[in-house]
């Protein structure tokens, strides 16, 4: 019996089918996206911009780390879901700041492309889970290298090269395939929804950046 599944659903594998589990993952993702959408609609980005940057990032990373700790360590679905929301809310603030600088039609285009790419990568993750499992380590190394390069460009050279956005898009496409494959192959927990949520949001933000430069 899968102990993780017993912890999170209080039963064995036989009680929840793969279809129902995927539905739960989908609904959890939709919940996060709806919360972000409502934050964009109702929170003035100028209010967020008035927060001192050091305080904002302390709160952002603190909230995210607390959320990740809760949904990874908790045996209770309600606590794990709380942890998921502690990740969703700070991401929503970032999304709010970013999309406020773009035309709404461009944001909708980025949403459409992100949705299509996400569905395609989920299909590939279902068909070729072993492939994505093999490249997971390479994806992590590539992402760390890109983050370092971006920080050097930002704080030392005061610039940003568009090619990095394309590289990050490819990395998070790989992560979506990996996390979806793992979600259906291993532990059936809310962790899978949280990982996919962060993959999809990062993919969306980079696609929006690419479209913004194009226009």
UniProtKB/TrEMBL annotation:
GO terms for cellular component: membrane. Keywords: Membrane, Transmembrane, Transmembrane helix. The chain crosses the membrane at residues 21-41, 47-71, 78-99, 111-132, 139-157, 163-181. The keyword Membrane applies. It is a multi-pass membrane protein. Its main location: membrane. It is found in: Membrane. This is Inhibitor of apoptosis-promoting Bax1.
